[in-house]
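Deliverable D2.4 — example input (structure tokens):
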């Protein structure tokens, strides 16, 4: 399995960013790390090993991107600055990572995937840009970071504005009525995976209900137990990526 390391200075984020690439061909996958984690964690957790047969067969090529969650959602800056930094990260993905992938891989299609907060990143960016992505897989994620839950705080301390609204799928998805956007979303291959005992179960069920209300096809898979650990994600990626 080919493995390549890349690093460049991001003019958008004004810092160096790193990416690990696994494979040479196949549909490219942008794999977002878990909360405040890094581009190498999925490799260390053997999740990339679980994908090795698909990567070596040329079915997918995986791009493990880095996170700046500690500078956005989990920073001590004012809430408006937190969401602003997140939007810069999204811009980095769209304007730096995606073109980087397109130069390396001419295969049509682009998958967004992630676990835990990485699942939020994947689903949020794919729902906002359904013409860029063709498939999204969110595993063990929550889709409303403003909702306090057991052991998980409101990441904006009660603050709410338009930028936050348009980056919380459980807020903006139910209100979508634009026919063009709905057609684009209905072409997106959407998979949500969550554990039955996961704190985020209701969050996922709410998003699934909202997608049903606007007639957007998707799959919601509920696993036994909490299923919010690398040993579960190793099995999930085999099935859904």
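Example output (designed residues):
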């Amino acid at each position: 399995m080919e493995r390549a390391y890349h690093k460049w200075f991001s003019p958008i984020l004004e810092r160096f960013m790193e990416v690990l690439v696994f494979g040479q061909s196949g549909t490219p996958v942008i794999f977002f790390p878990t909360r405040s984690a890094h581009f190498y964690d999925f490799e260390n957790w053997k999740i990339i090993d679980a994908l090795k047969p698909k990567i070596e067969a040329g079915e997918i090529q995986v791009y493990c991107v880095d996170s700046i969650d500690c500078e956005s959602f989990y920073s001590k800056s004012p809430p408006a600055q937190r969401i602003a930094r997140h939007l810069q990260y999204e811009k980095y993905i769209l304007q730096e990572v995606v073109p980087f992938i397109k130069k390396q891989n001419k295969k049509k299609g682009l998958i967004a995937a992630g676990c835990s907060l990485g699942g939020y990143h994947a689903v949020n960016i794919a729902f906002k840009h359904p013409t860029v992505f063709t498939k999204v897989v969110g595993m063990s994620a929550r889709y409303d970071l403003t909702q306090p839950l057991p052991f998980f705080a409101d990441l904006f301390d009660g603050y709410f504005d338009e930028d936050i609204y348009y980056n919380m799928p459980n807020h903006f998805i139910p209100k979508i009525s634009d026919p063009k956007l709905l057609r684009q979303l209905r072409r997106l291959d959407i998979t949500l995976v969550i554990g039955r005992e996961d704190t985020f179960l209701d969050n996922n069920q709410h998003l699934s209900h909202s997608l049903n209300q606007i007639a957007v096809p998707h799959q919601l898979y509920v696993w036994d137990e909490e299923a919010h650990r690398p040993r579960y994600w190793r099995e999930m990626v085999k099935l859904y990526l």
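Residues 79-104 form the longest helix (26 residues).
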